[in-house]
Write a structure and sequence with these properties.
about 210 residues, alpha+beta, 7-stranded mixed sheet
Length: about 210
Amino acid sequence: EIKRLYTSLVDFSKVKDSIISNIKNDSNTYFSIRKAKKIEKDLYIKYYRKTDVEDIISKIELDSWKHSNKQDMVTKSDQLVYYNELIKQGIAEIAVAYTKETNDLVAYRINAIYGDKTHVLKNSYREMYKKYSIGTYMLICDLHNEYKNYKYIDLYGGPGQAKKIIEDQKIDRYNILIIIFVVPLLLFIYFIGILTIIYAINVIITAI
């Protein structure tokens, strides 16, 4: 029997604002209020919806630790196209961190909202900005700031250090059916529709 990794879950209806103040002021965690203030001083986060963000994701992925291990989405080009299409179609959204001084790309996080739950699908950062612990900030503080009105934050995927800081429960890992089955079907129907229109135009032109 294959044992699947668990998925971390945060119930905001229970923890609310206390989770952030506790984390920032806990000297036992590697992510402190000092780091949070440094990030908020030097960086800003912008959200994109229904936008082509392939270039943004590519630049961050190519400078990430994932690239050296061939785990980045550029190497797995089908993933890059897939997640970019989710964002373009409005099924998911992306939060992107920039430097305030130069508008340089720093990190991203991709989310999908379903019902009262926000799913964290993908996140990454550029190695040159590792000192900020921006990935942790975006999983803790920015998620809370942006989605505190939702009941649950689902830190989809396997366990991680940042996830362990904020998780308040664990559930068996599962597949997000809306993404795995419904989205590809919708994209297939969409592209078939485009091809049908192109074919009809060619028929009309030929007839003329």
